[in-house]
Specification:
Elements: H1 2-9, H2 26-36, E1 44-46, H3 48-57, E2 65-67, H4 74-82, E3 86-88, E4 95-98, H5 112-119, E5 125-128, E6 150-155, E7 167-170, H6 176-187, H7 192-204, H8 207-232, E8 246-254, H9 257-266, E9 272-273, E10 284-290, H10 296-315, H11 322-325
Parallel strand pairs: 2-3, 2-4, 4-5, 5-6
Antiparallel strand pairs: 1-7, 6-7, 8-10, 9-10
Helix pairs in contact: 1-7, 3-4, 8-10, 9-10
Amino acid sequence: MQRALATVMAEPKLGALQYGWPEGDEKLRSWIAKRIGVRADDVIVTAGAQQAIALATSMIPRGGTIGVAPATYPAALELFATQGLTPSEGSSVDAFYLVPEIGNPEGLPLDEDLAETVRTSSVPVIADDAYAELRFDGTRTRVADRFSRVWRIGTFAKTLCPGLRVGWLVPPPEYRALMLRLKHDADLQANGLGQAVLAELLRNWDYDAHLGRARQFYARRASALAGALRRHLPSWTFREPDGGFSFFVDTNTTGNDVAFLAVASANGVSFDPGRMFRVVPSDRIELRLCHCNVGEPLLEEGVKRLARAWSAFTSGSCGAPRSDCRPA
């Protein structure tokens, strides 16, 4: 990426530092289009997947309902609240928002029953495939291909780096002009320098070899985390992920996940409370554990700290008020 940046900055006219078009860099759009099987003119480059989700859901009137999986991406849920939309696990909705290939927080493909419900519906489907290329075995389920009226979303945040803020949206053809208008009004264009660097990087770098290494890397860390959980917290349950960065763990104990987070933090370890990911909060303590940025020895140590925190929390000896220490 440093070499790609140097090449872009050596261009005499420094075009990457000038204004661009709201649809994005032509070379980058062509690469994305070839990758996902659409035309370059179908692709709109966005400021990460989050902006793509915001653009896609802007078609739903305030007060509308959007269907989601029982556990889903929390920043999308927060966005829906801002937009005046009500997320729902039901099927009578104005649109669906799904993470079909590898979900967040579970790291698993879309549930088949939900996929069938969506397939037989007549409402738009927003398919956020942020983790699609990080399935550990390298396969693609292409669940979204089974749906009609699909808004396709992707990003380089998970496979390369989030800081560039480069993602993409492929809306249905009849919405493209409107999405470009809204994109232009919001920010004129996505990060032009970032787009140019990515286009140069992808021109002469083996992206698929990089993905192969990344999948093995994250699979090893996922395996290490699974082993540590089974050794130190055998009463907790989880499904091993097929890809992505995280586990969604059920402690099988009712109580307050935020109260447990406070105890865990005091023991030098953290997690995402399960309530962040749910439309209908569970009465059990659930947590998302992320393995992507922690080495294998530290994963072991982190789970040991979680185990100590859980022992203190469940015994009522955590040092906080007793009502916060003990599960309900």
